[in-house]
């Protein structure tokens, strides 16, 4: 039996958020567009909002079912709020011990001992995040809830803090729900990822499962894929030809017919300056919209596609906005999802 | 055209400023300042000062004691009719104080709504110091409650949620989160209400009368003295101006305090160590 069993519906102003999810001693990331109901799920588990119906069970305790609604202050959850919600009038130590529990070792463990007497106002984003985490785990909660724990950090700090968070969650081995709008953060920190859109869970699985077999276009685009719309028609040679809505056509080794979403990951897309004679079956001529450095790679946004190439390749081809290039990708790297 | 604009607006501002300042300055210029403050030793002034301090202190303590929980509930609870209740709290703000006096008389006076009941217990309120306290409390309470509601509403909702997930019950949340974070706003509302209470005139003279040493507060003493001994009236007025200025300075300090709580909440994106 999973330590945290969720099966509930919460009514929000705009729509109902429905969730059925068993969380083991693992971290499940909830990703999805803003306003998808991710934070609502966390608030329901914490007892800050009351579901319209359903069940929330933590181990041997029923937190919500029918007439039972255990108050937030009586549930054993550690909650890291978006922007951290540290008490501005209390020192770091007072914040961490607000809920009781011993401070010994905790401040050292989170490398905030030297800030013990500081108030949150004077801390950097990364320091605040560590204080918020220390406060959330100080009471030895049975469930950990994290709302955009990396959201308020700049890209430079983010990478480091992401690693620390990953290690911490592995070490705690608590059922943890982590909300993020960033698929990369989710993939780096969580064991499983659930994609939530319009209050519905579209798919739950490991990052590899979501990338390899996205259930629909929302999941695919959240996993960072290019999604192109078209109409598929099987060919005699066993491949499928898709006529794209925006013009042109591509081939895929997936079988499909009728309206489909064509899914191609940026790292499967090669860029060339002219029609190239390579094994890729698909070639789309496009103009570069923007070029951005992402670590050791360059993300090149074209009109319909995004490609990721190495910095060396980008330099060699002198890629810059306005340049016309040919984007090539193999038929075997082209996934087709039937559109309902 | 720009020069004309500047001239017209500067002139309007100069006229307004002079008009507002002139009566205040005139009080200090009418008689020598030394003579002015010597008048504060006058028995009428001394009695009025004592009555005012005592009644204001009691009334203000009651307003803060009852007004703070009221404001907290109004700020934090969502219930139907909340808007109507908030409007009702503010109604005394727009009423002439004389109406408040008549209302208090109709409620607590000897022939009022509760007059008979109170009379049965041997309690008479009209024209006693208790009447002054009631009048002052009635008139100043909306100032306090309104400011206190705003002060509690300004506390980030997520801090309450965070306190709850840390196991804090309602008392602990109120004492350790709400009160300290709203302190600046509560202090400002309190100072404003106190100033309004000290200056209360209309409701007091109708409900409590103007008996020297019993119900005659400082504003009532000004009224009673201005055709008998204008210098005393001037002296009390000068005192009010100084107290008022002190309260405004206190408001600025509270405002600064409140700002110093809120400003650290802005998101910081600087790199960590």
Overview of the structural elements:
The complex is a heterodimer of chains A (340) and B (273). Chain A is 22% helix and 36% strand. Chain A is α+β, with helices and mostly antiparallel strands and 340 residues long. In chain A, α5 links the parallel β8 and β9. The longest helix of chain A has 18 residues, at 155-172. The mean pLDDT of chain A is 90. Chain B is mostly helical and 273 residues long. Chain B has a single domain (35-261), classed as Orthogonal Bundle (MetI-like fold). In chain B, 77% of the residues lie in helices and 0% in strands. The N and C termini of chain B lie far apart (56 Å). The relative contact order of chain B is 0.14. The model of chain B is unreliable at 262-273 (pLDDT under 50). The interface between A and B is large, with 45 and 28 residues.
Biggest interface, residues from each chain = A-B, 45 and 28 residues
Please estimate the helix content of chain B.
over 70%
Strand count, sense and barrel status of the largest sheet of chain B are: none
CATH topology of chain B: MetI-like fold
Report how far the terminal alpha carbons of chain A are from each other: 35 Å
Total discrete domains of chain B: 1
CATH topology of the largest domain in chain A, what is it called? Rossmann fold
By CATH, the superfamily of the largest domain in chain A comes out as: P-loop containing nucleotide triphosphate hydrolases
Under the CATH scheme, which architecture of chain B would be assigned? Orthogonal Bundle
User: What is the strand content of chain A?
Assistant: 35-45%
